[in-house]
Amino acid sequence: MPIVESNKVTDSKAATTPAPSAAVLVLEDGRMFRGRSYGAQGTALGEAVFATGMTGYQETITDPSYARQLVVQTAPHIGNTGVNSEDAESRRIWVAGYVVRDAARRPSNWRSERSLDDELVEQGIVGIQGVDTRAITRHLREHKTMRAGIFSGEAAQATDKELLDAVLASAPMEGAALAEEVSIDEAYVVEPKDHGWEGEPRFSIAAVDLGIKAMTPVRFAERGVRVHVLPATSTLEDVNAVNPDGFFMSNGPGDPATADHQVSLLRSVLDEKLPYFGICFGNQILGRALGFGTYKLRYGHRGINQPVMDRRTGKVEITSQNHGFAVDAPLNGSTVAPEERYGRVEVSHVSLNDDVVEGLACLDIPAFSVQYHPEAAAGPHDAAYLFDRFIDLMADTKSKATDENSTESKTEDKK
């Protein structure tokens, strides 16, 4: 049987799924839920959160925004359709641990290539099955998300006090700088021609990977936009080197209060009047760049059924979300940004569940963002128009620049 410590499988034959052993989920307030091991065996520590999606578990566990989190699936049956090589949203599974009620004994789907259990073992992800995920979810809703640990195999044989002490010694999500941990090391390009676009690219953008999901650059490429995906540590020189028509910041994990480098980079981009679009973490970074603060939500928004209103159109969208932090900005009307050089800003989108800021729109510079995931992998496609809105913003900005240059040229000719 492979030996697992902190999600690392040490046996070279890790893909051999071990027989289930006793397992326990321990929350930092002392609540314990006992079940059986799922996936790799050992210890997993992180923040316990719940995700309400009924489908898309493979996309969920491969979303880098879930780094250092133990994901509790509220849907009771998990693993029914197995996993495949096409649906992963990044290069690996990022959840620190996985909590399910009824794990499928075997997958049954024409696209399945292997079982979820085997995939968890292969990647060293410690999980637990056979627990009451509804009770866990209610507990987290009532008492907030919190640090937790999954212990199985030999690790589960420790005393309750030893297990709780291990959880209490783990790092909290507040103050966690994780974007650099999940980002790429080398830049790459996603070409429109590889995703059904015929003809030359319409625009080119620089996209900073703070935990980007694979489908995001694809959604741009399908619309004729060449995407230069850059590491989280990129500088303004790196951005300008690809001569972009627009600038994008992706979703990602961790506390936005730690993203000082990305906030500084975005301010430099905004100062150059380069069109900007951000999603999730990118929304929080725009908020900080404008001078607003951020704060941690009680239990966050995670799932593919979150209702949001676009205040510009009055339309309600059902959205895919995964965030535990939010922007602290005035909800009603436009206001001058605390960083006054950026002019007026308004909250463009708002959650219909709890009035959390779900989008920002700058009125005097070409920049906007949303807190949710318009790429919808998995999830509804209600918000796909946001990619088109950004393309329109780049086109409008380029047209205005052309008109201004033409006017300046005519003025010089008259002289």
From TrEMBL:
Pfam families assigned to the protein according to its UniProt record, in alphabetical order: CPSase_sm_chain, GATase
InterPro entries: Anth_synth/Amidotransfase, CarbamoylP_synth_ssu, CarbamoylP_synth_ssu_N, CarbP_synth_ssu_N_sf, Class_I_gatase-like, CPSase_GATase1, GATASE
Nucleotide-binding found in the keyword field: yes
Residues the record marks as active site: 280 (nucleophile), 373, 375
SUPFAM superfamilies: Carbamoyl phosphate synthetase, small subunit N-terminal domain, Class I glutamine amidotransferase-like
Residues bound to L-glutamine: 65, 252, 254, 281, 284, 322, 324-325
An annotated GO BP: 'de novo' UMP biosynthetic process
The Carbamoyl-phosphate synthase small subunit N-terminal domain, residue ranges: 21-151
Keyword annotations from UniProtKB, A to Z: Amino-acid biosynthesis, Arginine biosynthesis, ATP-binding, Glutamine amidotransferase, Ligase, Nucleotide-binding, Pyrimidine biosynthesis
UniProt pathway annotation: Amino-acid biosynthesis; L-arginine biosynthesis; carbamoyl phosphate from bicarbonate: step 1/1; Pyrimidine metabolism; UMP biosynthesis via de novo pathway; (S)-dihydroorotate from bicarbonate: step 1/3
Region annotation (CPSase) ranges: 1-201
GO molecular function, one term: ATP binding
Tagged with keyword Amino-acid biosynthesis: yes
Transmembrane segments: none
Root EC class: ligase
PANTHER family tied to this protein: CARBAMOYL-PHOSPHATE SYNTHASE SMALL CHAIN, MULTIFUNCTIONAL TRYPTOPHAN BIOSYNTHESIS PROTEIN-RELATED
Self-association state and partner proteins as the record states: Composed of two chains; the small (or glutamine) chain promotes the hydrolysis of glutamine to ammonia, which is used by the large (or ammonia) chain to synthesize carbamoyl phosphate. Tetramer of heterodimers (alpha,beta)4.
Family (UniProt): Belongs to the CarA family.
HAMAP family named in the record: CPSase_S_chain
Role description: Small subunit of the glutamine-dependent carbamoyl phosphate synthetase (CPSase). CPSase catalyzes the formation of carbamoyl phosphate from the ammonia moiety of glutamine, carbonate, and phosphate donated by ATP, constituting the first step of 2 biosynthetic pathways, one leading to arginine and/or urea and the other to pyrimidine nucleotides. The small subunit (glutamine amidotransferase) binds and cleaves glutamine to supply the large subunit with the substrate ammonia.
Protein name: Carbamoyl phosphate synthase small chain
Record organism: Paenarthrobacter sp. AMU7
Gene: carA
